[in-house]
Design a protein that fits this description.
Blueprint (H helix, E strand, L loop, with lengths): L20 H4 L4 H19 L8
């Protein structure tokens, strides 16, 4: 992944998925792992708190 997505924080959406992404059944295990790993950075990019490093 690009450097824009590097983060040490895991992402949890307690509002929409209070039990977690993998337990809800909407995502495969691989998709749930990717959301937890890169979701925090994606959310910050979306909110404008983080600037993209690459295009």
């Amino acid at each position: 992944m690009a450097e824009s997505f590097s983060t040490t924080n895991r992402f949890f959406d307690n509002k929409s998925y209070p039990r977690g992404f993998s337990r809800h059944g909407d995502f495969t295990i691989k998709e749930a792992q990717m959301l937890e790993r890169y979701g925090y950075a994606l959310n910050e990019l979306d909110l404008g708190k983080r600037q993209p490093v690459t295009e």
